[in-house]
Amino acid sequence: MSAPDKTIPALSTQSVDKSFGSLVVAKGISLTLPQGERYALIGPNGAGKTTLINLMTGMLNPDNGRIFLGGDDITTLKPDARVKRGLVRTFQINTLFPHLTALESVTLAICERRGDAGVWWKGLPSYHRDAEEAYGILSSLKLSPVAYKPTHELAYGQQRLLEIALALATKPKVLLLDEPAAGVPHEESSELFSVIAELSKDIAILFIEHDMNVVFRFASRIIVMVGGAILVDGTPDEIAADPRVREVYLGKGHRAHG
Amino acid sequence: MIGPVIGVLFDGFAYGMLLFLLSVGLSVTLGMMNFVNLAHCAFAMLGAYVTVFLMNDLKWPFLATLPFAFLAAAFVSVLLERTLYRRLYRASDLDQVLLTIGLAFVSVAVAAYIFGTVLQPVQMPPYLRGSFNVMGVNFAVYRLFLVAVALAITLILVLTLEYTRFGAQVRAAVDNQRMARGLGINVDGAFAVTFALGSGLAGLGGALAIEIVGLDPSFAFIYLVYVLIVVSVGGLGSIGGSFLAASLIGISDVAGKYYVPELGAFLIYLVMILLLMWRPAGLFGRR
Amino acid sequence: MSLTTDPVSGPYQYLKAQSRWRVLEVAFWLCTLLPYFLFPNYLVLASQIAITALFALSLDLILGYAGIVSLGHAAFFGLGAYAAGILSKHGWGEPITGLIVGGVIAALVGYASSFIISRFRHLTLIMITLGLGLLLHEAANSAHFLTGGADGLQGVKIWKIFGLYGFDLWGYTAYTYSLIVLFLGFLLARRITNSPFGLALRGIRENAVRMPAIGAPSHAHIRKIYTISAAMAGVAGALLAQTTETVALEVLSFQRSADTLVMLVLGGAGMLYGGIVGSAIFMIARDQFSGINPQYWYFWIGLLLIVVVMVLPNGVLGGLKKLFTTWRGPS
User: Fold this and answer.
1) What is the pLDDT of residues A111-134, one digit of tens each?
2) Which residue of C has its CA nearest to A83?
3) Domain ranges of chain C
4) Helix (H) and strand (E) counts in chain C
5) What's the whole-model pTM score?
6) Which residues in chain A have Cβ-Cβ distances shorter than 8 Å to C192?
7) End of a domain among A143, A170, A197?
């Protein structure tokens, strides 16, 4: 890969459609995530936000439309191939490896990235550099004290961080965070988002989040989805002022700046 | 020479109806709970032994034993469901497989202990014996009886599922268990009842099977394979799928053994694997 | 395996500690030499145990480490047995190459079927493994000219190992031979489970859905371990054919698949030693009880399975480990 051309978006979709039978979950979704930006994806429950992430990461296949990563068409690639190219997601509900330790989990992701995970004739100690890198990632997320603990013994907030650690281990160019603070107490969630905000500017981030305080503080641009389609996207100020958004979303929940 | 062909088709269809009775309960319960129950045919075997016991030791007439074959299997299955099965609904496939294989092993040994390993002799009443000849084709009375019973039960099942409140609950649970729970349907309760009915039908099927395939303690495993084939080919939770798959497998098994006996059951297994590779969720499966 | 009690200074030391040989392991392998001194009359049984243990170990690789439930693993055991048996019947009785041929044939079929296996899970997977097993069983039954069908394969003659050690009636050679092959297989399995690939397999077992999201080609991993496991099962089958100088149709039976699954789970899956301990317990018990009550053997096996699932989820070894941890006090 040559030096990245800043004008090419990190991730973009072109009129992506998806329906299950008669239920339309995505219609004509076109969005662009420039390099190094932090975008928020918001919308009421059932708006199709997670579905959109599933479509972009290849866990679902779109009926129509195309998906581009750094200018390359990745519409037909399998999920693991997309991860290898730098498109990585986290999950709203912790989907971790309960009986692997935190260190083992992250080491696994690094081995997969480096192509070491197919090696069965050499012991893991020969790959201690992978484990040390994993330890470094865990340290940067303040997880080193629990590195040798099985995942299922970790506190909930630590498991949320481990989700992010797993994603970082794959060296993402684009990170899709599906409610990274879901289930985390309010006071801890902004702490978690500061960690996210401090991530390298080489990583473009699209995150789903319901807490409007967080959204307005961390997103440079906000995309609002309703009923499987993009209603509007704009800067936080534009979104805050948009009457349509107030009507379908902010008006209902009284969450904004509350 | 169309005669033998019709004869094989008829025998195959009758055999298929037997497989249908044996497997329909498993199909519905698997569709609801995704519980891999390898002890299903042990319930069928239980029903069969109840019939043998009532006929040979208590001298009951054959038809009178059938309701008790049904009830005994249903009762024992509820007992086991309440005590063992329900604790493994969320467990891994492996645990479910192990528990139910264990139950099947125990049932085989218990049957061998009580009845011995010999083939059980039963004497069908005169009106179910013999056959009659239509245009050169032999129709065994017992097989006609079997087909009639199976069709009647299919009709009852379909009507129950389509037109009763209980049937609606079962269909909702098979379709989407989580949503059904969300709608306030007592999925566990509906499952327990379905499980009992399904096992009862297996028990009835077992009783009806004695005349066709014989009965010894290996029944619980030999027919398990056929039942699993019917269920996975038909698609989980689909009565129509089970019916069609059972007919297909019954006919191809009988035809295979008639025309290419040297292949044995090879053909059936091959057909099953190819079908599953083509449609992993079965012919009528939705997942 | 848990390291909560040991102070660990860094990731490298941690990995080292994970794969280090423990005293108990060394003691275990020394114990496998005891039959020579304590039970010289039971060496034939001991060699059968070693062979079954190797087969159980191969099942552990796919079931205990990658979470693939197979009800038809005897297919590969039987392929290896028939390959080695038929080879010898047609004039080539050299044992080591026979083992290799058995392993390679099983591996080839394993690799071909792994493309099917890796696509499915749950009931469909169970049915496909079961179906492939039954299919081969029927095929061997029908191919009388090649396999001897239900009468078994007769006329297997195995040459001396390295031209030196002939198979004797007391099973000295058979046990030594089987034990060495088992140990080599164990070393291989141990290396695999302690490798990056082994870590990936545990990832698949723990959360198969998550694997693609960290960039893991799960299907390729599953194909690889399935092939390795098939090869190991094939070697075990070839061992049985060579040490008994006959091949019965039973090597391909569902019963053998189920029995081995029982042994593995009884001992404890996912722990390498579980299959070995489980087959020793199972086969010694069967040998002891078969004289008394052959019919009801499966009653106790069935009961044992129910108990294991209900109260001893990690088998005998898992239970012992738990007992040991409690005894040492919570860390």
Assistant:
1) 999 989 989 999 888 888 999 999
2) C215
3) 24-253
4) 15, 0
5) 0.87
6) 120
7) A170
